[in-house]
Write a structure and sequence with these properties.
6% helix; 38 strands; mainly beta; Lipocalin
Length: 572
């Protein structure tokens, strides 16, 4: 045989082996909850796409919903039985065929929200949840329940499939309130779903609210079963005896919930990541509990089980913006039910989710308290995570300003983290930095946590960098890291095939990356044409594996976008 032809045939054989196999039996693998499962693992049990063939990945289809409201496209697609469910920035729900992307139905909530930009809504929406043939969407300040096949509102749920759940709670304390938006409340996140009950938290973008409400809602009726206020306002609120004395001066605002809670059904507990306090910091001397905390609540009653605060007396906008991730591991030969949370302060915290105790040392470390602001009383220590060996853990993004342009550094001060705010400071992480709302992913195979974060020091005069890192939670060691231009603001997904996918936001391009889950080697990238501020999902339809992600946004999302992309390997 001609040698050239033999080599060509050999190459063809190898290439063919890398293609997606032709399925002999139809097989679907769903993505049924916002971050895949109750634990928020984002670990897809699919293995067609591997480090060896991921370079062949190409777009299979795209869908555009056509709504651009000036914020980034942040939805995480759900896929059940070959149907994909996505939302636009307002919270309208779209059902599309997950195999080819054609629209099946649309439920438009625009007219139902009862508010727009002039009324205070800054539309932002991150997806839906599903159970037993019903799709649930928390949009505006309402909960919607829709038939998954038709998009028709669920009979008996609230008023025509729309339940005013936040308003129902607020009226218990503020009987004269007419709308939830008038007090600054809405939803940004997808609800969690378990055994017929919806669990969701409320917030408002950078505004004053008298505490973020965690709600448990009956999935059939829309009735609120219980609620928990993250910033107790009076003795009538649970946790007042703990949190009340930590707000000295009268201000009790903030504590919104930006993302989906996690659930451990065996422990009968749910875990909520609470955002930062708000308002005049001179009117809230103290720790300001339960802001910037992980709060564990009973699934049945909402009773407080434990809490852990990650930032004391926050004046830097260091939210907990992502869903806590639950996983099991061993430490010194002993099993540990663990929880990990990455904060906008640049640190990752690993806790025992049964007790709330740190798995590795978290040391209250003295910080600067010198301030020129009259009436400000900074907190003297902050909790800093350490590795199992006692060394300080490598942060998920720099916690001291680096790479500052000389012309911008002139006349300004580079200050250490947790320095009280002052004039002409440059500090890191900036208010838009650290680990934002992108969730952590965890692989049962590698045993690693995958975290995307932003490095953009405040007042630095330079663009952002994405820090995408893999950590070994058993030791707290950084295993590998990739640094790229643009905002590392979206979460990742890791697969049984050993590939981890993550996107980056940018003013010029939104690259979608694939890395080797064990080594961090870059294997593939695709320019989506606009920033990626959404977390991807992985699914299978008719035996073929797809990776899907929403794209749209730049300049941290001030330009909107409306694109959903699905990628797959070529078929034989």
């Amino acid at each position: 045989m001609n040698l050239t032809r033999a080599c060509a045939l050999s190459s063809l054989t190898i290439a063919s082996a890398l293609l997606a196999p032709t399925p002999s039996v139809a097989q679907n693998v769903d993505w049924p909850l916002h971050n895949l499962d109750l634990a928020g693992s984002r670990f897809a049990q699919t293995d067609q796409i591997t480090p060896e063939n991921v370079h062949l990945l190409t777009p299979r289809w795209l869908f555009q919903h056509g709504v651009i409201d000036g914020v980034s496209n942040q939805t995480t697609p759900l896929v059940i039985d070959g149907i994909m469910y996505v939302t636009d920035s307002r919270g309208s729900v779209y059902a599309v065929d997950a195999l080819d992307g054609h629209l099946l139905w649309l439920y438009d909530v625009t007219e139902l929200l009862g508010g727009g930009r002039q009324q205070g809504y800054v539309f932002r929406h991150r997806g839906v949840t599903y159970e037993d043939g019903v799709v649930y969407s928390a949009a505006g300040s309402f909960m919607f329940a829709l038939d998954a096949k038709t998009g028709e509102p669920l009979e008996g749920f609230g008023d025509g499939g729309q339940a005013s759940v936040i308003l129902d709670v607020l009226k218990q304390q503020y009987p004269d309130v007419e709308t939830a938006i008038s007090m600054g409340y809405w939803f940004t996140t997808a609800p969690q779903m378990h055994n017929g009950v919806l669990y969701v938290g409320s917030t408002r973008s950078e505004s004053r609210i008298p505490g973020g409400h965690v709600l448990a809602i009956d999935g059939k009726t829309g009735e609120v079963l219980w609620h928990f206020n993250t910033v107790p306002q009076s003795e009538a609120d649970q946790g007042w005896d703990i949190a009340g004395p930590t707000w000295n001066g009268g201000g009790r605002e903030g504590g919104g919930i930006w993302e989906t809670p996690s659930i451990d059904a065996d422990l009968n507990m749910m875990y909520v990541a609470v955002g930062n306090p708000f308002g005049d910091s001179t009117l809230r001397e103290g720790l300001n509990l339960f802001s910037d905390s992980i709060v564990a609540l009973s699934l049945d009653t909402g009773q407080l089980q434990w809490y852990y605060q990650l930032v004391h007396h926050d004046v830097w906008d260091y939210d907990n913006g992502s869903q806590p991730i639950l996983f099991d591991m061993e430490v010194d030969g002993e099993p540990v039910k663990a929880l990990a949370q990455a904060n906008k302060n640049g640190w990752m915290y690993i806790l025992n989710r049964e007790t709330g105790d740190p798995v590795h040392p978290i040391i209250e470390t003295p910080v600067s308290t010198e301030t020129d602001r009259e009436g400000e009383v900074p907190y003297p220590t902050q909790p800093i995570p350490h590795k199992a060996n006692g060394e300080v853990m490598e942060p998920v993004s720099p916690v001291f300003p680096t790479d500052i342009p000389a012309e911008h550094a002139a006349g300004k001060m580079l200050v250490a983290q947790f320095t009280p705010l002052g004039q002409d400071q440059i500090f890191a992480p900036g208010m838009g930095g650290g680990a934002s709302y992108g969730p952590i992913a965890y692989s049962e195979d590698t045993g690693l946590l995958y975290i995307n974060a932003i490095d953009q020091p405040f007042n630095s005069g330079r663009g952002p960098k994405g820090y995408f890192s893999a950590y070994d939670p058993t030791t707290g060691e950084l295993v590998w890291r990739q640094i790229f231009e643009g905002y590392g603001q979206a979460g990742a997904v890791v697969t049984k095939g050993g590939v981890v996918f993550v996107g980056t936001g940018s003013n010029t391009a939104g690259y979608f990356f694939a890395y080797d889950a064990m080594t961090g080697e870059e294997l593939w990238r695709y320019n989506t044409g606009s920033g990626i501020f959404a977390s991807p999902a992985v699914y299978m339809v008719d035996g073929q594996e797809f990776v899907t992600v929403a794209s749209g946004g730049g300049s941290r999302g001030r330009r909107g976008g409306d694109l959903i992309l699905s990628f797959a390997l070529p078929t034989q």
